[in-house]
Amino acid sequence: MSSSYTLFKNKYRVLGAMSGTSLDGVDVVLVDYWIEKDNWKFKIEVAQTIPYDTLWQTRLSKAHTLSPKEIEELDNDYCLKLYELLSEFILKYSIGYVDAVCSHGHTVLHQPEKGFTIQIGNQNLLSEMLGCTLVCDFRVQDVYYGGQGAPLVPVGDRLLFSQYAAALNLGGFANLTRIDKDPLRAHDLCALNTVLNRLAAREKLSYDRNGTLSSQGKIIQELLHELENVEYYQYEPPKSLGIEDVERDIWPLIEKYAECPTKDLLATYVDHASSIIALEIGDAKSVLVTGGGAYNEFLIQSIKDRTQSRLVVPEKELVEFKEAIVFGLLGVLRLRQENNIYASVTGSSKNHSSGKIYRPIVAS
To answer: Are 103 and 17 in contact (CB under 8 A)?
Structure first.
């Protein structure tokens, strides 16, 4: 596969890749981006979630517990795995040319308050093996500038989806972008599928399809009260969440009620999350809803019951691949040396163009 080193032009073809906390696999999209009347447009050519096998799901789920040396070893292995998955995608769809592969990598640790965030799979090795330009590791520079390193999607929300007042992502964590605010505002709201999927696993389910189990449960008022008092909700934005926060602040509360039926635990957490989400949506007139949680009918209805906003769940490709699409655009902005992170979102000292650019010594 070949790639171009041209920075400034009107059209780009990019592979965007995103691995999230749900651990279902790597979302990969081939997207065309172009500028039309000073506005960014895009078209999805092909998109696929390439699933992780059980071994990799297990390794990634435990990554935050590893030592620095073990994380380094995992990083090397993950680069090889990512190459395998991306090569599979390239071969399957006969992709011969892209301007760049723009990859988020996989978050292992996210502790901006301590001055670091770690995403694996962001090595020059991947560029060399693929034989094309790689734009990656978008978060580290923002943390260096004093920011949260998250969320990063809001810039793409504004540039690609400005027809909505807000964009709500219901993934491993729920986060919201108020597109209609100036300056742009966004932050992580609460843990979501990182908790719901783990509860569903108690019933040997990968997730609670359509929210069927949670819709049958009863709210555990004591647990709900404890969840409402989690310290994170008292902080003012900018703020962000990592899997460490779930392990420290959320899961110990749920484990206190481990003898309760799973459906009741799910119902309680959905009630909690939908309350937090609706409060943050506030007066936004229209909200684009994406991420796996958009398919959770019980969760969506619970949010609707608490807000007057119009929630728009788009077509399947956008629901499932919006983050990969946005990371593709963030990579394009980085190639153009244009800002792809805003200080108003992350709390960094300045707007900046973030991400490492690797180019193979000899592009094939």
So the answer is: yes
